[in-house]
Amino acid sequence: MYVNLQANLLPPLGDDEPYSRPLHRIKHDLPKPKCLKRFKLRTVVPWMGRGATRSMLHHDRHDTLYVLLRGRKRFRVFPPSDALKLMPVHPPLKIRPSGEIEYATAVDHEHLLTQGEFSHFVRTDLGAASPFPAKAEDLRASGLEVELRPGQAFFLPGHWFHEVESIGEGDSGPHIAVGFDVERPDDLDQRTLKVRRQAQAAKRRRRRKRAREL
Predict the structure, then answer these.
(1) pLDDT tens digits, residue range 151-207?
(2) Where are the domains of the chain?
(3) Are 73 and 146 in contact (CB under 8 A)?
(4) What whole-number distance in Å separates Cα of residue 100 and Cα of residue 92?
(5) Could you tell me the CATH superfamily of domain 2-183?
(6) Cα atoms found within 13 Å of the Cα of residue 200, Cβ hemisphere only
(7) Compositional bias (Basic residues) spans (predicted)?
(8) How far apart are CA 158 and CA 192, in angstroms?
(9) DSSP H helix total and E strand total for the chain
(10) Which one of 7, 46, 168, 212 has the fewest beta carbons within 10 angstroms of its own beta carbon?
């Protein structure tokens, strides 16, 4: 069993209310983490289950801080630059400097939500029954793996592909997590390019300094 309660599938409490109805009564027990102080909180989503569950390999469009309360979670993540080899449902057209993926096909996400199909889900299932076993094995080996214990958190940037395995206490017990989804800044591409230029300039300065010391 695996349950999550998305705020956009429930009657809204207000345009600027990120806590869904099931969490609204305990919102003061789940305050916005201090590390997200400069970000606008989009939604707060509970994730609950029992035993072992595994999500499909996919990406979200927003940044998320996952906080694990009970059980264990194992993330296997891939950067946006791996989009082509991951075989998304719709082919990627462009990957922006910030990592945001644009798809070749215009996607009506509300329609796909009701149809159970997502542009950001991939065909390359990494599970035991993968239709691409050889490719899945290669991808599984190349992904970055992160395991969380209770009290730990993991920040996942938007458009990073991820598969999440959740394991309950004692393998069959409950696992509970809360996801804090935040809005991505509108100027993220410009910020990313600026940081890259600064890093490249710093690298050139270090090279010149080493050359003078020789």
Answers:
(1) 999 999 988 989 888 887 776 788 889 899 988 876 667 777 777 788 888 888 888
(2) 2-183, 188-213
(3) no
(4) 10
(5) Cupin (2.60.120.650)
(6) 6
(7) 193-214
(8) 14
(9) 5, 11
(10) 212
